[in-house]
Each structure stands twice: as C-alpha cells, then as structure tokens.
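Why do we care about 3D structure at all? Because function follows from shape, and shape follows, mostly, from sequence. That is the central idea of this module. The next example makes it concrete: a single protein chain, its amino acid sequence, and then its structure expressed as tokens.
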Amino acid sequence: MFDYIKGELVYKGEDSIVVENNGIGYSILANSRTISLFPNLGSEIKVYTKLVHKEDIMTLVGFKQKEDRVIFDILTSVSGIGTKVALILLDEFSGCELIDYVINEDFKSISRAKGVGLKLAQKIIIELKGKLSAKKTTAEIIHGKIENLDVNHDELIEVQTILQSLGYNHDEYTKAIEFAVKKANVKTSEEILKEALSMLSNV
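And the structure:
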C-alpha cells in the first residue's frame, strides 16, 4: 500500500517512530537498530514501509534500507516467524550480516538472536537462500566496465542476483558493484556484496 513515507520525524520511541507528512502523523513500528539510524527530531526522513494486516489489526512497519524490508518479507514468509521475530533478527543483525550468514550457511550465528533456535535458524537459511538465488538462472551478464575488472564472473553474477532479489534496478546494482569491486580488498562475493550494500544504503 505504501512503498515509503517521506516527512518530518516528530517522535522516536523504543519501538516506534512517528513521521508527519501533509498534516498526517504516521505511527511506524521499527526495531532499535532502525530507529538509531534516523537523525534528530525535526529532520526530514524517508522510511520504507510494509503494511502488516493481521486479523483486525493493521500495522505499518518501517525500515531505513530497502533491502531490510525485502529480507523482512522473506523472513515473515517462513513458518514460525512473525513480525516480532523478524524485527528481532534485523535488530540483532544488519541485512548485510544476515545475508552473509545465509550465504555461508552459518546457522549457529543466526541462532544467537533471541527466540531463534538452531532448527529455526536452519529453516531461515534454506528459505532466504532459495529466495535470494531465485533469479540466478535468468540473471543477465553485467556489461561495460565491470566485466573487465579482475573478478571471477560467477562471483559477480551471485552479487548481481542478490541485489536484483533485494529490489535494486540495473543502474543501481551496476554502479554499486563497480564501486564495491574497486574498494573491496578481497574479491569474494561476500566482500563485494558488503561494499555494494554499504554504498546503496547511503544513497
């Protein structure tokens, strides 16, 4: 219903914020990590939102980064994970950290989050990895300067696939990958992805 809300930050609580836009104050549920990323009250902010409709209650959930919302959607599609647990996971780990654990199948690290045991952590890895690699078979080869850089082609395709799955368009992920490849000390998909998401999060 709402892709994002842009307006003045008028309230910051422990688990929610209020953003005023055109005289309407939107109460948005968020975790402490997300809330800490927003500036002081009175600042104009942009919040990516997800409308969660459960029984007779509708809740707006907010995220600073677009990829966190995508990960939230995937997490809440896993049996046994609701809004609360998904937000706890994205509070315990950044989106990049969570993706890194999934790529490396590190279920023990994921199980550190409150309310997430080893069994659920393994389930999360299976679900997330499946969704993030869903576009791999149709991923286009990156053209231009990137394919001439000293990086394994499969590593580039893996990063591109994940960024596509997180909702970034061709121009966004191409610029981000080129930046990341030049900056990353180790040219692995994990390191490139980390630098690319860092750049995209600050755009």
